[in-house]
Amino acid sequence: MKQALIIIDIQEAFFLDGQQNLWNSEAIIKNINASITWARRNEVPVIFIQHTDADDVDFALGQPGWELYHGLLRQAEDQVIQKTTWDAFYQTELAAYLQAHHIEQLIFAGAQTEFCLDTTIRSAFSHGYHHNILIEDAHSTLDSNVLAAPQIIQHHESIWHNRFVRIQSIGGFQHAD
């Protein structure tokens, strides 16, 4: 089954100041980069999704926070797809790219768990991608007014697992090939 690694919205805005840092950000970046290394070793395309929102100064096109995070192991051949909604499939070239490259399985990492990751995971399922993987220790979010980030993550993983994705740790994921 041909795979693609999709890294969602790991952008500078989440690292610019101490108030908006993703929960467990150092470990998340380390694990995302480990998944990128795995993808390159296995000739799996790496797709970076970049959120663009003219109404949010942190994610406005060309602003410092809009840039993909400088600590990611990006290469020139990686695909970068910009989106303007929480769904990476909606009005983007993602579906066409996946079809053109005969991708059958998506491997997800990124942010934010309850927003763009959740919406894109569910949308992928609706687009016919039913055998997807989420790297459990390679996605994150921010604390909300109601729940702490680890609670948000745990809640969403409990809903997704064996419905929309199979959840694997980075260690299990890397040794699965």
UniProtKB/TrEMBL annotation:
Name assigned to this protein: Isochorismatase family protein
Keyword Hydrolase on entry: yes
Keywords: Hydrolase
CDD domains: nicotinamidase_related
Species name: Lysinibacillus capsici
Annotated Gene3D superfamilies: Isochorismatase-like (3.40.50.850)
Isochorismatase-like domain location: 4-144
Family: Belongs to the isochorismatase family.
EC assignment: 3.-.-.-, 3.5.1.-
Annotated GO MF terms: hydrolase activity
High-level lineage: Bacteria, Bacillati, Bacillota, Bacilli, Bacillales
Pfam families in alphabetical order: Isochorismatase (PF00857)
Listed PANTHER family: ISOCHORISMATASE, PEROXYUREIDOACRYLATE/UREIDOACRYLATE AMIDOHYDROLASE-RELATED
Enzyme class: hydrolase
